[in-house]
User: Which sequence fits this backbone?
């Protein structure tokens, strides 16, 4: 039996609202991976909930270097290093240190350059953090931006985002940095009623699209759900095209189910009962 791939998950823990670590851990476990959490912050709930004086944000930057040192001492190795939402600019430098320590020829670095959505940066992201996120993403093997994050990475106004196939292929190629990294661009649509991802696979040079039926609602945390399914599939040896299609299909099914149940949008999608679908390739 093959060993479970081991993933360092460098992400925040949001106690309520289904995003980042609370999505990534169960998804990657269902897909046969061993996730080692390196939390960047603990928040009482994700930042899409209305601002509140009671909302907590515990910055865990102070634990990160020590955790990496302990893991190195224990001789831990990783098949993948997966980062997403970061709590401060300093954490980006610590993730780069983590790469220097743990990146090997065989490891896969996935950067989900979480910075914003719907054309706007999240309220905790400063312009300096967004610039540094670009530097981190430049070191990745695979990035999974949405259109807002892609515009920030390319230095283009969100309003100039492409809405048709040729333009999307051009953005995918530019995001690949000359073919050096694979890209899965989320939240793209090629026509009414469908949504999914465009991808560039650096191993084949192929660009393509993985589309699913568009449900009439958008939930927080679905970017994390999508990226973790993509990573789980890649670690199983599936192609990027297949991984993107699995991600698009799984998110669509979770959204459809959650819509039918009618739970609040901010609580995210009810992926838990569908995890079984991820267990088989
Ligand atoms: O899903 C991305 C994400 C992760 N972590 C936190 C967030 C968000 C998006 O809003 O607020 C804390």
Assistant:
């Amino acid at each position: 039996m093959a060993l479970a791939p081991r993933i360092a998950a460098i992400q925040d823990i949001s106690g309520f609202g289904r995003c980042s670590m609370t999505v990534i851990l169960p998804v990657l476990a269902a897909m046969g991976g061993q996730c080692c959490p390196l939390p960047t912050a603990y928040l009482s709930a994700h930042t899409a909930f209305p601002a509140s004086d009671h909302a907590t944000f515990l910055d865990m930057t102070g634990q990160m270097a020590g955790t990496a040192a302990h893991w190195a001492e224990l001789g831990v190795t990783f098949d993948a290093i997966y980062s997403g939402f970061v709590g401060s600019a300093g954490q980006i430098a610590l993730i780069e240190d983590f790469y220097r320590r743990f990146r090997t020829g065989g490891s896969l670095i996935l950067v989900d350059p979480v910075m914003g959505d719907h054309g706007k940066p999240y309220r905790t992201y400063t312009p300096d953090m967004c610039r540094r996120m670009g530097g981190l993403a430049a070191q990745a093997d695979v990035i999974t931006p949405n259109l807002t994050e892609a515009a920030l990475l390319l230095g283009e106004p969100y309003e100039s985002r492409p809405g048709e196939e040729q333009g999307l292929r051009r953005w995918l190629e530019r995001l690949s940095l000359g073919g050096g990294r694979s890209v899965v661009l989320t939240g793209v649509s090629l026509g009414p009623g469908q949504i999914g991802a465009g991808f560039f696979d650096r191993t084949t040079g192929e660009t393509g699209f993985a589309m699913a039926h568009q449900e009439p609602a958008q939930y927080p945390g679905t970017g994390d759900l999508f990226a973790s399914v993509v990573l789980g599939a890649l670690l199983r040896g599936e192609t990027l095209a297949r991984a993107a299609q699995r991600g698009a299909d799984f998110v669509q099914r979770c959204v459809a189910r959650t819509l039918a149940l009618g739970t609040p949008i901010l609580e995210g999608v009810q992926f838990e009962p569908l995890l079984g679908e991820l267990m088989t390739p």
Q: What stands out?
A: Residues 12, 14, 19-20, 43, 46-48, 85, 114, 122, 220-221, 223-224 surround PXL (CB under 6 Å). The chain has a mean pLDDT of 96.
